[in-house]
Amino acid sequence: MTSVEDRPAAVVTAPLETLVDPGHRVRPTAVRGWRLPEPDLLALAEYGPPDDVVMTPS
């Protein structure tokens, strides 16, 4: 079993595709118009944010 200290490290070093649930995400079309760093725009375009109430883009 992993320690409490190891769990956050495992999450932040895991590939993003292993953390994203494809059934619960939004793929916004207006991502290019957002003022974010290019790597973040690319990640949002590919994976999208979660589709919960707090994170759904308008």
Structural class: mainly alpha
The helix fraction, in percent, is: 25-40%
Please count the beta strands (DSSP E, at least 2 residues each).
0
Q: So how many helices? A: 2
- Silhouette: elongated
Beta-strand percentage range:
under 5%
Distance between the termini: 41 Å
Average residue pLDDT: 77
Order of helices and strands: HH
What composes the largest sheet? none
- Regarding quaternary structure, what we see is single chain
Radius of gyration, in angstroms, nearest whole number: 14 Å
Low-confidence stretches: none
Can you give a write-up of this model?
With 58 residues, the chain is mostly helical. Helices cover 31% and strands 0% of the residues. The protein contains two helices and no strands. The protein has helices at 6-13, 38-47. The longest helix is centred in the C-terminal third of the chain and has 10 residues, at 38-47. The protein is elongated. The relative contact order is 0.18.
